[in-house]
Amino acid sequence: MDIDITKITPEFLKSCKVDQLIDGFASACELYSVVLDVDGKILIEPSGPKAYLGEFYVTVTNPRYRRLYKETVEYIVDTRETLLTEVNEISPGSRFAAAPIFVDDHFVATWILYAHNKTQSQKLFKSYDRQHVMASCLSDIITKLYAGSMTMYEDKLVRKQLKFETQCKDIVDEILSMVISGDKTFVSDVYEKVRKLLNVDYIVFYRVDKTNPLNMILHDYWAKGGKSEEAEKAFVWDHDHYSPEMAAQIRTEGLVIDRRTMTNQMRAEVFNGNVKAIMVFPVFLKGEYEGRMIFIENSRERIWSKSEIKFAKQIADIVSKDLAVVRRMEQIESAWAAIKKVADAIPDYLLVRQMDGKIIFANSYLRQKLGEDIIGKDSRFILPMQEEFAVDGAPMETPSGLTVYQRYIDILGGIYDVTESIHKWRKDEKVSIVILEPANN
């Protein structure tokens, strides 16, 4: 359609209640917000916390920042992405995110979220990608309203889509948090959220059988009716039942089948007449095909939306990242086991302690000498922490990060040569490795 952007006025946006959506989002994030047209004029009035609202209004109308706004517009029009940048010239630690709004693919406005201080900047960093999603949805809403073609039903669909994409982002963040922290306590609960949000009957994760590449091993699954022997039996097979062409596609970009593409031959030969729609995406480990995530709809015929496909693929990508983290941790644990074996063979006393003094390892010689399990105890009953020596007055040298000194240790009943060094540990926290050797005096 022919677009006259001069008719995208503040009054038009208010009639569409776009201002309420934007101000509500900014209020929930506790950030400042404004929408400007292509020339930098206000389309939706500035809003935000009272503390800086007046100055924020003056800032967005200040001719001094027109060049900054022009450069911002050029960037987001070229990239069609939200720009997040610092603006220390306004206030130290301040940032803004600028998201484009299009009408029928024509750039008409910029939605700016502004953080005045470091606390707000942290909130902005967490919110700006959601801002981009919302700006995209608002572009669709305004386009359809402007054309006069949006019915109440279409409006409901757009809002539903916006809610779906926001929920997808929240779940992705939750799963990534688990991958980063290594805490798998609630993994089943989170993947059940994925299943419910996609409204599918099953999510199944298969690993490749390394002894037989044509065989897929059931690794885990999440089912609508919960886990059961009957469900498990349905997911186990002794060969890859996809055709060679489908299997090859799964190993690269994945397979998406729904009402538009499902054939009777597929139902009979591949899905045994049960599946109504399916998405299959590859899982990789260090760039090599490791398995597949399958999202299965048995209850009804459906057409997968672009957002659903994107979300399912994101989940498969996160599983790939998780496998890489697990593999790395297994390697670290294996190395740690080897280190403990060597440490136990050292005829001196050895312990590993955290920076708070807590003992996380002691070799067998030290445990036997003390005659008790000291793991988890505060190591200071054996030896003070390094920073405490300044008060203690003990001599020490620290060349190349290594501390070597001599000390009488009460609990061991003698003078010992102490070698202590600081190292990074499994999750990047620091630990101190201490070796105690009887002094040859």
List the defining traits of the structure above.
42% helix; five-stranded antiparallel beta sheet; flat; single chain; 441 residues; alpha+beta
How widely separated are the two ends?
94 Å
Helix and strand element order: HHEEHHEEEHHHEEHHEHEEHEEHHEEE
Computed over alpha carbons, the radius of gyration is 30 Å
Number of helical stretches of at least 4 residues: 13
Which SSEs are present, and which pair or pack?
Blueprint (H helix, E strand, L loop, with lengths): L9 H6 L2 H12 L2 E6 L4 E6 L2 H11 L5 H14 L3 E4 L8 E9 L2 E10 L2 H29 L5 H30 L5 H12 L3 E7 L7 E8 L5 H7 L8 H7 L4 E3 L6 H6 L7 E9 L2 E10 L8 H40 L3 E6 L4 E4 L1 H7 L18 H4 L9 E8 L4 E11 L5 E9 L3
Antiparallel strand pairs: 1-2, 1-5, 3-4, 4-5, 6-7, 6-10, 8-9, 9-10, 11-12, 11-15, 13-14, 14-15
Structure in words:
The longest helix has 40 residues, at 306-345. This protein starts with 9 loop residues before the first helix and ends with a strand. The protein has 441 residues and is α+β, with helices and mostly antiparallel strands. A hairpin with a 4-residue loop joins strand 11 (349-354) and strand 12. It has helices at residues 10-15, 18-29, 50-60, 66-79, 118-146, 152-181, 187-198, 229-235, 244-250, 264-269, 306-345, 364-370, 389-392; strands at 32-37, 42-47, 83-86, 95-103, 106-115, 202-208, 216-223, 255-257, 277-285, 288-297, 349-354, 359-362, 402-409, 414-424, 430-438. The protein is 42% helix and 25% strand. Mean pLDDT is 80; it is low at 149-153. A five-stranded antiparallel β-sheet has the order 2-1-5-4-3, sandwiched between helices. Strands 7-6-10-9-8 form a five-stranded antiparallel β-sheet, sandwiched between helices. Helix 5 (118-146) runs antiparallel to helix 6 and helix 6 packs parallel to helix 11. It contains 13 helices and 15 strands. It is flat and about 90 Å long.
